[in-house]
Amino acid sequence: MASTQRLSLTEDLTIYHALEHKSALLDALAGSDELELDLAQVEEIDSAGLQLLILLKKEAQRAGKRLAIVTSSQPVSELIDFCHLAAELGDPQPASVADAS
Fold it and tell me: What pTM was estimated for this model as a whole?
C-alpha cells in the first residue's frame, strides 16, 4: 500500500530558506511513496526555490516515487510558467482555483 504525505509550505521558497526546505522536503520524500506539495502560502519564490523543486522531482523519479504540486500561489505558478517547467513539475492548481472547488 502506497503511503501519501501532504506537505504545506508556509515560508518563501527563496535562497534564504532553501537549505532548511531542502532537508525537510527530502526527508518527507524519503518517508513516503507519494508526496503532495501545497505551495498556496508561498508568497515568494526565486531560482533557488525553483532548483529545489526540480531536485525534489528528480529525486522522486530516481527513487520510483511520485511528487505532485497540488496547489500553488500565483508567484509559484507564474515562475513555473515563465520557465516553461509545467511539463516537468506538473501543472499545479493555483490556490484561488483550488479554494473554489
Answer: 0.87
